[in-house]
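thread: overnight batch results

M.L. [08:02]
morning all. the overnight job finished for the chain we discussed friday. pasting input first so we're all looking at the same thing
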Amino acid sequence: MKKTALLLALALSLTPTASALDRVPGTWTYYSVSSDPITDVNTSLVIVDEVNDTYGSTALGFKCSSGPYPGLWSLVKSKNPLLDPVTEILPTATVRIGSRPPQTIYGDSLSSTTLNGDTDPAAIGFPEGITREMAAGLFRGERVVIRLDRDPSVGRQTLTYTFPADGFKAAWNAVNRCQQGRGAAAAPTTPASRAPASSAPASARSGEAPKFTQWHFTTCTDTVSGAVRSQLRAGQTHRCQLVIDTVPNGAAPVSAAFTYELEYVEGGRSGKLTLDTRDVWQAGGSGPILHRAEGSRLIFNLPLNVRVRPERRYTSINVTAKLTFDNGATKQVYERLPVIP
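M.L. [08:03]
and the structure it wrote out:
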């Protein structure tokens, strides 16, 4: 099968309505721009070919939706089997973005995928948090390396795949960076670094709040075992990263307050519980909340723990963060973090 045909087969497995792939010239990075004609959900995708697979049988795909629903996720499609479709024991993935420390994603945070209605033994899906990190790294020009340790019943050889950044920035812009909204797939946004500067002087923007473009949890690190997950495991304390992408408008955060809400299922009925806990971060101070900035990205490291109760199963912890900036402006975000038993 020709390389382009193999990539189109991957595209069809991600989006049944996909009919064509555009290739970024001079690279083996492809993209397909599409949207749902009724809901305007951005259903586009980007595919990055693995550097050592000259037949194009191994690739990293980024999908802007899951079926008809908005939601960024990614998958590795391999020339090798990755799981037994009967047992569906998922491999452990180690992901390294550029020169950053590697992250271990255990099988309980990965997912199997389907092909023609059946489990695809040669593909695994990654959740939104690590997907956004991989996309951000490729956009910055950093390669992504993924190492997969499979169940011995599938294969004892460790698989290591390298995905280059060549062409990714152009492809990611073409699909509007998988942002959702009316016309999202039709008109790429201007990168923040190239956006027209405001004609108003800095003094005229006093009190203007930064613009928050997107926010999400990336990973949670178990404080005892060091395991890295995209979800919070009940009964174990984690340090979880809440990432907020901003257009700063000249303002910097000076404080942030975090409040929490739990969602649960008990006796077959679902409910919500607002917690009395309120954690505060102050610039230059000490406390349980850690903060750092990477350019226009704000990263808060939160200590989170949801206890185990035999009669109640917690499904998520919902975090509200209210940020105050040095010009007096305030801004609030709300984000849900899944909880697993």
